[in-house]
Design goal:
The protein is an alpha/beta fold. The protein has 10 helices and 11 strands.
Length: 338
């Protein structure tokens, strides 16, 4: 059987080979430099090419992709289907079985709850997946910090680390996004086939870039030139750094997005724009029908009504009437009361 020729991904002044879908990438940039915007461009290209995509979004900044693409949204203010913290395994099963592209919006959840959910979801996805699929993780340092954290943090890190280090053999590629390269776990940074670096200013974050350059044998003069460029980047500019896979270390310009950038900073006094999202009615029905097989959201069976429960007041005034009305009827029939 002839292998499918994968469509290239046009992100601006450069196109990335379609094999990106099973590769690992880091998007590194300080706040407001365009990292989520760039992620949206990559999402558009992946969906345009017909590749399966999962977006994990703890910020609520990615729903604008639905302006142009029929992608189901789980959770968050724009949800097609709401999810609960215990739905991780079921959702991963649905993503694989139905070949879904989806956005998992966790902006309304406590971070530890989100971490536990993602750990379960990623572990099940890794177990079941066998076809090429890409995962984009916004604010990846939330799930894979360099140090510290709760038990939930450790669970999430192990799951993310497993996908990044071993996912290729299961067809899984991962793009992580962070505004703090200094605090995301170095196991994640070190496994990238490509880094896309936008504007960075903090010395500790720049040091994370220096460490990468050191590992690849760049001399002091070369590092100085690259760091100067990174610090001067304006919106839409980035350095693509992939010395092994793409054999590239060069500045690029990011193309304009085709869909709404939901991560843009709101302007004071300006109402949020009205965005028309693609209809996913048929897809939503299909997903709900599938999930119903797992009895998601099923109401518990009602507790049997017993005399004891009625007398205890557990069934309110209706229950009390069950006792009083028969008593009145008996008195009337025996003594002629009423």
């Amino acid at each position: 059987m002839t292998a499918q020729v994968l469509q290239e991904l046009n992100i601006g002044s450069i196109s990335i080979p379609g094999k990106y879908i099973t590769k690992c990438c880091n998007i590194l940039a300080k706040r407001g430099s365009g990292k989520t915007y760039l992620a949206g461009v990559i999402e558009e290209e992946i969906l345009k090419a017909g590749y399966p995509l999962v977006i994990v979004d703890p910020m609520g900044a990615h729903w604008g992709i639905r302006e142009g693409y029929k992608i189901i949204i789980f959770g968050g203010p724009h949800a097609d289907i709401m999810i609960d913290p215990g739905d991780g395994e079921i959702l991963a099963t649905a993503v694989v079985d139905l070949k879904l592209s989806c956005l998992i919006d966790l902006v309304e959840w406590d971070q530890d709850v989100a971490r536990e959910f993602i750990a379960t979801f990623f572990n099940k996805l890794y177990q079941l997946n066998s076809t090429p699929r890409h995962i984009i993780i916004e604010e990846a340092d939330v799930f894979a910090p360099q140090s510290g954290g709760s038990g939930a943090t450790k669970l999430a890190f192990k799951a993310v680390d497993n996908l990044v280090r071993r996912g290729r053999g299961k067809g899984i590629g991962v793009t992580t996004i962070t505004q703090r390269p200094a605090i995301i776990h170095k196991n994640i940074l070190s496994q990238a086939d490509v880094n896309i670096i936008l504007n960075l200013q903090a010395n500790r974050d720049l040091q994370a870039v220096v460490d990468m350059l050191d590992d690849d044998g760049f001399d002091s003069a070369q590092k100085k030139v690259l760091l100067a460029k990174i610090k001067r980047f304006t919106q839409g500019q980035a350095l693509i750094y992939s010395p092994q896979w793409l054999k590239l270390t060069e500045p690029i310009r990011i193309r304009k997005r085709e869909t709404f950038h939901a991560g843009a900073e709101p302007e004071y006094g300006v109402p949020p724009p009205k965005v028309k999202l693609k209809s996913v009615v048929a897809l939503k029905r299909k997903v709900i029908a599938y999930l119903n097989n797992f009895h998601i959201g099923e109401e518990p069976e009602p507790e049997p009504v017993t005399m004891g429960s009625v007398l205890d007041g557990k069934h309110g005034q209706v229950g009390l009437g069950i006792v009083l009305i028969p008593a009145v009827i008996i008195l009337w029939s025996v003594f002629g009361f009423l």
